[in-house]
Amino acid sequence: MRVLVVGSVALDTVKTPFGEVEDALGGSAVYFSAAARYFAPVDVVGVVGEDFPMAELDFLRAGSVNLEGVRTAKGRTFRWSGVYGSDINERETLDTQLNVFTDFHPELPESYRDAPYVFLANIDPTLQLDVLDQVRAPKRVVCDTMNFWIEGKREVLLKVLKRTHIVMLNEGEIRQLVGESNLIKASKKVLNLGPEVVVVKKGEHGALMVSKDAFFFAPAYPTEHVFDPTGAGDSFAGGFVGYLAQADDFGEEHLRRAVIYGSVMASFNVERFSMERLKNLEEKEIEERFQTFREMVRITA
Amino acid sequence: MRVLVVGSVALDTVKTPFGEVEDALGGSAVYFSAAARYFAPVDVVGVVGEDFPMAELDFLRAGSVNLEGVRTAKGRTFRWSGVYGSDINERETLDTQLNVFTDFHPELPESYRDAPYVFLANIDPTLQLDVLDQVRAPKRVVCDTMNFWIEGKREVLLKVLKRTHIVMLNEGEIRQLVGESNLIKASKKVLNLGPEVVVVKKGEHGALMVSKDAFFFAPAYPTEHVFDPTGAGDSFAGGFVGYLAQADDFGEEHLRRAVIYGSVMASFNVERFSMERLKNLEEKEIEERFQTFREMVRITA
Questions:
Q1: Which pTM was predicted?
Q2: A285-A286-A290-A296 Cα dihedral, nearest 10 degrees
Q3: What ipTM, to 2 d.p.?
């Protein structure tokens, strides 16, 4: 089954303790697609500026990603710049230039509107709602967001959540959204807002998936060298939604495997800058790492 | 197989958002024994003051815990007082009165010296070393410690670690011990100090076990109401060491199960103040919760 993603296509300037890159390919829609395409074909909606080096997306095009919905607008491409400290889990945003994103209104090509699986990456919830109004009957809508929208666009975000099946949040975001510090209670409160599944991304502590009937804990990959965490959440989402679309089944067993595939893709992504690692993965590597995750939680009777 | 524990027997005054208790039974050796006795007989070494209400330990005596090594000394019992805030994971120590613990020198009854399994609870590493000098040929030594000793008695602690098979640390302690923020790298550095296994206790994020050849990740129990976290680490150790002693096998498969039994006992402990929950558990409850833990990480092929 196909996956539709709406999100940013960006040029990132990133500094970590291990190096730096300038104007490297980034953005939520790009990280997502780069990961999801290993599992299912992807349709992207987004916008770039006239300065965008389109050839850098060739690897996506070659890998069953449809970029028909990526429009080129007058002006410069969205840019983000950040620095990670010696504790690689903490980052500081140095600069965000919305540029062409300021006037972005997602317009779905006709061929996108029957998308069975939809990922609303972390963008203005007004735009997320725009997209939902244009798709006809998605089987599953998965949504990401961030502190900025939870605080500034709460009402619209709540409307999006009412139409979302699966929401992805990090620990800070979920606590902010429902005002509850206990993660389990907080997750249950989110289930009352609409979604039937909450995935809490906990970085080096793994991920927690909560639904009405079940809890699932997924470990983080024991990475000794987190090189650049940028895009970890979006590549996680790519593995997660991509796997669900491939299975075309969102029962508990598949949701659990989806969380692990999400963790697998995020673990590859953080090993290098930008798309360097997600560009050329082999299916065998993905499967091996999936097995490593299984082994990490195996308990014999 | 029997388990030997050396640690504190204390009277705790604790305040949480859900209530408070004064001079309630506490101490690392007590929390440990209260949990471990469900798996194996326990020999305790410790000291109490003349004011100590010995009858409060009756439930341990009745439950295969040998208190022959608990001496009564002139003076008052060790007291600890703390308060937990609305984020139950953060606590502030209000008062620590060492009292009879100041001049404590552990003396093992002859019958304790062939202990096959030894748990050195969080006390002055000089005393931990004292105990190790008195046991003849333990199969496994498990050690706990804290920031205070890592900073103030580093050299002695390193001597203890050289003679320790399994060390338990929380995230802050392990980072402090080896000066490394990446948990995986930090754990490997600890393996170079002597222990063959490191268990990192991560509270609401579960536990991570690292050995030369394997990683094991255990979830935390999805507790909605952490009532009082006091003793969580020691009851974890009780379930962990108790299970190993029961199995009398410390191969990887048993170590993994031990981590889960540790998590099980800690999850019960935090549901009530003091020993209230650990006092009267049924084997069936323990087994059911063990199965819940398995279910939380189950991934089908």
A1: 0.93
A2: 50
A3: 0.89
